[in-house]
Amino acid sequence: APLFVNVADRKWNPDAIVFDSATSFGTPSYHVQKLFARNRPDLLLPCSVTAANAKPKAYTGAVGVGTWSTQAEFKELKVTQGDRVLAEADLSGEGRGLRLGEGAWEVADGVLRQTGDGDGTRAEFGDPAWGDYTFSLKARKTGGREGFLIHFHVKDQSNWFWWNVGGWGDTRHGIERSDGGSKQEIASASGHIETGRWYDLRVEVAGSRVRCYLDGKLVHEVSDTGSPSLVGIAGLSSKSGEVVLKVVNLSDEPKETAVELRGAGRVAPEAKAIVLSGGPLDENSLATPLKVAPTTSTVSGIGPSFRHTFPPYSLTLLRFKASP
Length: 324
Fold this sequence. Notes:
This protein is mainly beta.
């Protein structure tokens, strides 16, 4: 990993090439890597892009708790929306409503207890459509190497956020996000969790903003202001005399864009366009191995100054001859 993955044992995303005993196919990530590898200029050109940011997401999702190589207890798990209580975890008997996943979980003595040594244990509850809420609880570490995982914005097993409290060998706290199974850290702060001590934890979410409190103290505050809707780089292939322009449209709408080649002399009127596009969650499969795959065409109207429309959710490569 992340090069090859067997279709019958796919545990994370992305990988480049998926196979079974008879055939294989490339994922969208594979095609991106291949396009960049086969269209490498040997001279980078200064390139600036001016475009509005894509609108930030308003996240929703259920909540939960977990651990990483750690044993812990949790109690008083509550989700509120203003003065309204959306849900409280039932820890009085069988834990009705709890979705117990990886780990050795039990409900006893009014607490939810995890006694296993596994990584990424999880117990969740609530509605994936929940938004703008506060998730509060108490947690106590009873053994192990790290602290607690406080889940929020949980859509499914591949799309979620968690507040990793006392993670990375119990050296710091961080907010991590999994998008389609691909995890990234979006906030970090130094910190440590003591064994045997009860902690008050609170996560407040509103739209794309997240605030995390430990014993009443604000530890993280992050907000998604939206990613750039259009990004690009450019280069010159000295062997072929071609400008290679690579542009990614991250938005859900086509972007008609003005392109200026400052300092260019003669420019060929046509360009080769290679486009990889699809929906934000589209994937290839054994049944549809080319659902997201590059297409090649010729576009006209190229010059020192021209306009081009980049499709939504796309990578576009334009190659055309030009001289200084």
